[in-house]
Amino acid sequence: MDYTIFAVIIFVVALLVFGGVFLIRPRRPEAPPKAPPQERGGGTGTATAEPEAEAPPEEAAGPVVAPEPVPEAPPAPEIEMPPPSAGRLVRLRARLARSQNALGKGLLSLLSADRLDESTWEEIEDTLITSDIGVTAATQIVESLRTKVKVLGSRTPEEVRGLLRAELLAQIETDQDRAVRTEPHAGVPAVVMVVGVNGTGKTTTTGKLARVLVGDGRSVVLGAADTFRAAAAEQLATWGSRVGAPVVRKDEGADPASVAFDAVSRGIADGVDTVIVDTAGRLHTKTGLMDELGKVKRVIEKKTPVNEVLLVLDATTGQNGLRQARVFAEVVNITGIVLTKLDGTAKGGIIVQVQRELGVPVKLVGLGEGPDDLAPFDPEAFVDAILGDADQ
Ligand SMILES: Nc1nc2c(ncn2[C@@H]2O[C@H](COP(=O)(O)OP(=O)(O)OP(=O)(O)O)[C@@H](O)[C@H]2O)c(=O)[nH]1
User: Fold this and answer.
1) Where in the cell is it found (predicted)?
2) Model ipTM over 0.90
3) pTM score
């Protein structure tokens, strides 16, 4: 009898233990799915624009609770594939034609007059000067045209167009090396510094240039060394994320040189082709600017040479833009000019004047606010856009 009671007690205890383990054991919420990896680049560390999503901490075991609904991982940004750079200026010709055609048409109609008297030549010179080509270039063009017209005698519209085309091309200089040096060398990325006064389109140009390079099959890291304005880094982060280019940035007010250094280090570590560094362009004092840009360049050069220093100029600012260009040319060794907003001005002649002043070629032109409205500068396509087609 005692044994029976004892066996019943053991059975009841076993039943309680079994029920406790299998029925009351709490369920753990599932970990959220991992975000898909970035297609290209993809960054780590505090300095990049793509913070990694942290996994939520696991909850401690406790009483039975309904699992929390698992939050959806944000969709990875879609990586765009911009069009290649080749032939962009030809594709964007309509933009140039819209802004520059009046200049071309005006000159062609003046030159086609039956009699080219003194006042007509003066008018031709004035039209050229109004296009910001500069007095020296305008005078040279008129002198040369006068001689050629005299030799030619009567002129057909094709001849007039041919003469003017040749003069404009001679002033723009077709034999300049306009290639932007973005090729990696000895396994190290090329470094491009983008300088210029804020508002000229500097940050936009940095973003657009990244797209040009990605469109041409290159890999890029961007450095947001314009730490003066937080929005500039934000703007660049957006440009970078669209084409999968990591953006190295720091807080507003951080040392621009340290951002540039980190960007170049990141570019080397990732083995990318090109690092593009956007800089701040406050013209507070020439010495301040010189100190800042000089330091950025020196610090980058502890790692690798700077291959290209692009000065961004707003084509609509005329003489003021030229003054800015002179200051920048004095503080840093500019290797190429980017002329932005050429779509919004009839003053395309500025190309000639700025090249003369700085002795540096225009390498890229901005022709609109669209992401792919930056084109390698092609003198022939430019002059043809100004003059319109021969049969027009
Ligand atoms: N129409 C036209 N607008 C342009 C062009 N390039 C830039 N812009 C516009 O110019 C404005 C200024 O561009 P940003 O890139 O912000 O200028 P920024 O020099 O970097 O100035 P901060 O950002 O203040 O440093 C923006 O609205 C651009 O869209 C261009 O080629 N054509």
Assistant:
1) Cell membrane; Cytoplasm
2) yes
3) 0.79
